[in-house]
Amino acid sequence: MWLMSYMTKNSIEKPSAVKGSVGHGAEGTTVTASGEHKNLPCCFPYGIVSIPPEGHSAVVLPLEDGEVALGVTDNSAAVEPGEVALFSKGGASLVLKNNGDVVINGQVF
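-> structure tokens emitted (109 positions)
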């Protein structure tokens, strides 16, 4: 019994994530790493929808039925641990600060 469990656990190759550069084209969102991953759906927390801009680094995760882009790995927003920042390529921003402040486009509320 232990031998079958050991063989099963150690003989199946686990999928691994890759990181590459985001692009867009006729095939939708693409990420170029060691190969080109085309027509990727993007995976974000519920309620957040975004398409990563070209040139940023994104993580691609293989699944049983395809692949998904998990999002960009860049950290362009200066936030403290526990804070949340939303921002667009065009410059709009929203930051939820630890002290309870909400900063919208640089204006504190």
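The two ends are 62 Å apart (CA to CA).
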